[in-house]
Amino acid sequence: METEAVETLGARVRAARELRGLTLRRLASMTGLSSGFISQLENDRSNASVASLRSLASALGVSAAELIEGRIKDSQGVLRKDQRPRIHMADGLTKFSLTRAPLRNLEIYSGYLEPGGSTGDEHYSHGNAQEFVMCINGRIELFVGDEKHVLDAGDSIEYLTSSEHGLRNIGDDTAEVLWVISPPTN
Q: What is the pTM of this model?
């Protein structure tokens, strides 16, 4: 279901913020922008730079184009398997987004790792949220900080996304993995 066409950029930012259930203060914290600036933007008393627009869009779980063009969609409804946004990553990983924009409380992905495939040679961190990873099929090795964990089918782990982490398939078959992140850090 699409939201009603909204005339101004400020009104679209407000609509996306409210759809996601964020306060001005929380959005300011997520973007590094001041709540005063965001309020002025929402009330059409200020304009956004490209950098601030990209930051707002990322925090709101939408694209900058959706904010500019006003095509913000509510995330209710069925997402068919063949309609999942596909993200081809390097190193033998294919991820699928299971949550629609704008992201609210959860960010969920499923993915397949070819034998030897990984999230990359360098471990990474993102935001400060809770991340849950479950090995659906296969065998993966997951690094969180200095710790290494081996997960077999049905095993799961939770950690903070602010910790350096990464995973790889150490099995002989394609591994299937599920990621759940709350709140979203996209």
A: 0.65
